Amino acid sequence: MKLLAVLAAALPLAAVAQYSPATDVPAQAAPSSDATSAAPPPTTGWAPAPQRNAPPAYPPDAPLRRERTRGSWYIGFGLGGGGGSISDSAGTHGLKDFVGPNPTVLSMNFNVGATISPQLLLGLDVGAVAAISSTETSPGVKDTQIQTTYYDVALTYFPWERGLFVKGGMGLTALTWDLDAGGRSTWRGYDMMAGVGYAWWLGQSFNLTFNLDGSKAWYGSNGPDSTQTFSLHLGCEWY
Questions:
Q1: Which of 109, 152, 175, 235 could cross-link 209 (Cys pair, CB 3.0–4.6 Å)?
Q2: Which tens digit of pLDDT belongs to each residue from 210-237?
Q3: pLDDT tens string 156-190
Q4: What whole-number distance in Å separates Cα of residue 76 and Cα of residue 78?
Q5: What are phi and psi of 166, to 5 degrees?
Q6: Of all residues in the chain, what percent carry a pLDDT higher than 70?
Q7: What's the CA dihedral at 188, 189, 194, 200 to 10 degrees?
Q8: C-alpha dihedral sign at 97, 102, 104, 105
Q9: Would you call 68 helix, strand, or coil by DSSP?
C-alpha cells in the first residue's frame, strides 16, 4: 500500500516536469532541403561594404587656357606704302622726282631681337622706302628706282605690355639710285628712326600690327645732304 501511495504522489510531479512554460521559445526547425533560397556561403577575406549612394560622375574640368606671355625673343616683318624726300644743295625734292613717271612707293620692315621685359624689346630693325617706275624715260632707261634703307638698333616699348607701342633707334643707312642702263649709285650715312603702332594679340604669340615709322638720315659731302622718309605698313609679329 505504501508503494502505491508513493507512486500516486510521484505522478503529478512527473507531469509538472514534463510541462513547457509559455515563456519558453520552441526550438526552430531545421530548414528543409527544398527551400527556394539558401543563405550565401561565408566569404573568405575582407570585402568592403557596397556603396549604396555613390557620388555622381561629373565630366572632367576643361583645361585652363594658357595666359598669353612674351617669349624670350621676337621676330616680325611688314609691308606697306610711304613717301619721302631728298635734300641737297639744290633744295628738297620728293623721291618720285628721281624716277620715271607714275612711280609706286613701297615700304618694308623686318625686325628681330630679345625680350628685355614684358614692356621692353631690344633688337635689330631694318626698314626701307622705295619709289619704283617701269615707264621708259629715254632709250635704255626704263626700270628706275630710288631707295633709302636703314639698319638700326631699336628699342620697342609697350606702356601697357600689349596694344599701343612706341619705338626708336639709330644706326646706319644707305641711299641707292638705280637708273637701269644709266648705272647705279649708292651713298652711305647714319640715321635716327622713330615709330608708333598698335599690336592686336591674335594667337599665343602671333600679333597683327599697324605701324607708322619715320626716319631722318645724313650722308657724306659727295652725295645728298639728307633724306626724310615715312612708312605706313601692316606687320606680322611673333613675340
A1: 235
A2: 999 999 999 987 789 999 999 999 999 9
A3: 999 999 999 999 999 999 999 998 877 889 999 99
A4: 7
A5: -130, 155
A6: 71
A7: 30
A8: positive
A9: coil
Its pTM stands at 0.69
Sign of dihedral through CA atoms 162, 201, 115, 155?
Answer: negative
Neighbour tally for 113: CB within 10 Å: 18
Q: What is the mean pLDDT of the chain?
A: 82
Q: Which three cell numbers stand for residue 154?
A: 631699336
- Strands 226-238 and 206-219 turn out to be antiparallel
Residue pair 214/230 in contact by the 8 Å Cβ criterion: yes
Q: Give counts: helices (H), strands (E), the chain.
A: 1, 9
Q: Which residue has the higher pLDDT, 83 or 36?
A: 83
Residue 205 in contact with residue 222, Cβ under 8 Å?
A: no
Residue 199's contacts (CB-CB under 8 Å, 6 or more residues apart) are 158, 162, 163, 165, 207, 208, 209, 237, 239
Closest by Cα among 222, 130, 113, 233 to 171? 113
